[in-house]
Amino acid sequence: MDPKALGYLAAGIGAGLTVIGAGVGIGRLAAAAMEASGRQPEVAGQVRTSMIIAAALIEGATFFALAICIVLATK
Amino acid sequence: MSVLPTFVAHATLEPTADSASVFADTLRVGAEQGVAHPGTDTFGELLHHVQDAHELETPFGILELPHFAPIRLAGLTLDMSVTKHVVFVWLAAVILCLVAAIVARRNARTLVPKGFGNLFELFVVFMRDDVVLPNMGPAGLRYFPYILTTFFFILVMNLLGILPWGASATGNVSVTAGLAIIAFVMIQTSAIRAQGLGHYLAHLTGGAPVWLWPIMVPIEILGLFTKPFALCMRLFANMLGGHIVLVSLIGLIFLFKSYIIAIAPALMVIGINFLELFVAFLQAYIFVVLTSLFMGIGIQAGDSSHGHAQTNGETNHA
Where are the domains of chain A? Predict the structure, then answer.
């Protein structure tokens, strides 16, 4: 197979896997946050803030992987 | 987004030789053959409209920006030419200075501000009560002006990207790297100021026994750099990602070459634009929340002798 084609293939598969990971991670995070604010609605604001921070950290790791995919697709 | 007017201007839906239809042709060729056309870079073409450029798209045509000869400095070649994103960084700074000065003067006259002044005060109070105080404590109020400036600067740069003919400078990795370097300096200086240099260096060992230092010290030093690096990449990738989604959706119109099909991508683009509006606020907020969180770790470690447990978790924040 052409090395360039392999590069595109790797970028596509990599981007897909990355999004699966991020989706599962942020989904679990959101589920836990919903449950927590359902149990204790009075701390819902604090739970939301820490949820957004944690989601941003997951997202950061996701973007590292996506940046590698973009490099693979443009090389 | 910035690409929209360009495409509308060229939207003849017929093959012509200009740059927009070259992009469309590249996409079509890519779709027909299932692979990228040899000799053309599909993804590169797609990225072209969100990248930095030496020209400015205005309602009155394309404005060429001045080129300066590269400066050679100690083996480095520095191209100091003014580019599109540089113009938008300056524009954001000017807008922010004007708006902040006008609002501050107007708000100083009344106890209860009205209208836009009230909105501005809402943001300022939110930043103080929900970002700086919970993360940094009262000692962090010294750094409140930095946090506030960063927030509004990033917000204005993000929002400029949503305007027609606009470009978001935060979609350029150099701009976000600059912001991250400032954040890095602020995080380290606030930590050194609060803890003292000796205590700060002691924290780099992570409280581990001496024989673990060869492992701990490099990891802790790496941890210092990963935090601003993550800040830089997060803001850059979020803003660029939104632009690429918009370009791809508009590209669908040129792929199908049909007015009927064009309705669906147009509706999708409107939806994504609202999402981008939300992301513009969210990313500015995330940047300052994480910066104040990282600064708070250093500041509060200086407040009490029990700060070591907190700093052990520091490297996990990347």
Answer: 7-69
What is the four-CA torsion angle of A65, B168, B154, B109, rounded to 10 degrees? -160
**Residue B45: pLDDT band with limits 50, 70, 90:** low
Question: DSSP letters along A11-43, please?
Answer: HHHHHHHHHHHHHHHHHHHHHHHHHHHHH-GGG
Is the pLDDT at B248 greater than 60, yes or no? Answer: yes
- Would residue B77 count as lying in a domain? no
CA atoms of B4 and B163, how far apart (whole Å): 10
Q: Is residue B181 part of a domain?
A: yes
Rounded distance, CA B215 to CA B208, Å? Answer: 10
Task: Say how many domains are in chain B.
Answer: 1
A16 Cα distance to chain centroid: 11
Residues of B within 8 A of A8 (CB-CB) are 35-36
Chain B environment of A58 (Cβ under 8 Å): none
Looking at CA atoms only, how far is residue B152 from chain A in angstroms? 19
Q: Is the pTM of this model over 0.90?
A: no
Domain membership of residue B255 as a residue range: 88-317
Phi first, then psi, for residue B92 (nearest 5°) are -60, -40
Give CA–CA dist B297/B288, Å, rounded. 14
β-pair partners for B64:
B55
> How far, in Å, are B19, B79, B119, B268, B283 from residue B11 at the CA level?
11, 34, 39, 18, 32
Q: Which CATH number fits domain A7-69: 1.20.20.10, 1.10.10.60, 3.40.50.720, 3.40.190.10?
A: 1.20.20.10
Pairwise CB contact (< 8 Å): B44 & A74: yes
How many residues appear in chain B?
Answer: 318
Partners of residue A70 in chain B, C-beta under 8 Å: 43
Note whether residue B14 is domain-resident.
Answer: no
With respect to residue B73, please indicate whether it lies within any of the assigned structural domains.
Answer: no
Least confident of B111-125, B160-174, B198-212, B298-312: B298-312
Cβ distance A52 to B318 less than 8 Å, yes or no, reads: no
Q: Kindly report the backbone phi and psi dihedral angles of residue B208, in degrees, each rounded to the nearest multiple of 5, phi listed first.
A: -90, 160
